C-alpha cells in the first residue's frame, strides 16, 4: 500500500512544504522580522503541504502503481506534481532577489539532496524479529513483577506542569486536525 506514496504523493507533499518554507521566509524578510521558523510553524507547514496534495495527484499515483486498469491509465495520463515546479521556481526567484539563496543554488540540487536523504530506517527480517523480541522481554518481566500491592500513589503535579501538558495536548489536536471542540474542552479545564 506504500507504493502510491513512493510514486509521487510524498514527493508532492515535500515540494508543497518547501514552497511554504520559502514563502514564509519571504514574508519574514518583507516584514523585517528575524528569519526564524519554530517547530509549531514547521508542523503547520507540513500539514499545509499535505493538504495541498490534490486528489488528481493521488489518483495518478495509484494509477502508476497499477491499482487502475491499464486502459484507464492510458486514457488519462497527467503529471503527478502538477504546477508545483512553477511555484517552486517563482519562490526560488524571489528568494534569490531577497538574497536568501545564491544564484548558484539550484532547486534540482535541493530536490536531489532531499531524495537522497534517508528518512526511515531500512529494516530486514532479522532486525524486525530482534526488535520485537527486545520489546517483548521487558513486558514479560514487568508483568511478573507487577502486583497491586506495589502500586505507589501518584505524586501531585503543580499547575505549571499541568498547563504544559494541556498545551502539548492542544498541539497534538491541531496536528491531527481534530475538531475544535476538543481544544475548547481543554481550555475549559
TrEMBL record:
<dbReference type="GO" id="GO:0003676">
    <property type="term" value="F:nucleic acid binding"/>
</dbReference>
<dbReference type="InterPro" id="IPR004875">
    <property type="entry name" value="DDE_SF_endonuclease_dom"/>
</dbReference>
<dbReference type="Pfam" id="PF03184">
    <property type="entry name" value="DDE_1"/>
</dbReference>
<feature type="domain" description="DDE-1">
    <location>
        <begin position="2"/>
        <end position="62"/>
    </location>
</feature>
<protein>
    <recommendedName>
        <fullName>DDE-1 domain-containing protein</fullName>
    </recommendedName>
</protein>
Amino acid at each position: 500500500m506504500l507504493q502510491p506514496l513512493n510514486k509521487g504523493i510524498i514527493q508532492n507533499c515535500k515540494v508543497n512544504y518547501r514552497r511554504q518554507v520559502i514563502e514564509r521566509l519571504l514574508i519574514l524578510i518583507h516584514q523585517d522580522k528575524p528569519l526564524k521558523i519554530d517547530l509549531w510553524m514547521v508542523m503547520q507547514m507540513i500539514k499545509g503541504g499535505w493538504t495541498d496534495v490534490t486528489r488528481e495527484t493521488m489518483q495518478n499515483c495509484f494509477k502508476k502503481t497499477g491499482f487502475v486498469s491499464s486502459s484507464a491509465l492510458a486514457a488519462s495520463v497527467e503529471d503527478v506534481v502538477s504546477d508545483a515546479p512553477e511555484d517552486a521556481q517563482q519562490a526560488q526567484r524571489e528568494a534569490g532577489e531577497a538574497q536568501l539563496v545564491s544564484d548558484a543554488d539550484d532547486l534540482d540540487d535541493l530536490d536531489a539532496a532531499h531524495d537522497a536523504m534517508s528518512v526511515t530506517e531500512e529494516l530486514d527480517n532479522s532486525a524486525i524479529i530482534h526488535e520485537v523480541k527486545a520489546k517483548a522481554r521487558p513486558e514479560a518481566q514487568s508483568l511478573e513483577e507487577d502486583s497491586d500491592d506495589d502500586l505507589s500513589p501518584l505524586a501531585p503535579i503543580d499547575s505549571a506542569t499541568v498547563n504544559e501538558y494541556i498545551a502539548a495536548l492542544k498541539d497534538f489536536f491541531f496536528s491531527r486536525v481534530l475538531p475544535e471542540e476538543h481544544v475548547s474542552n481543554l481550555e475549559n479545564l
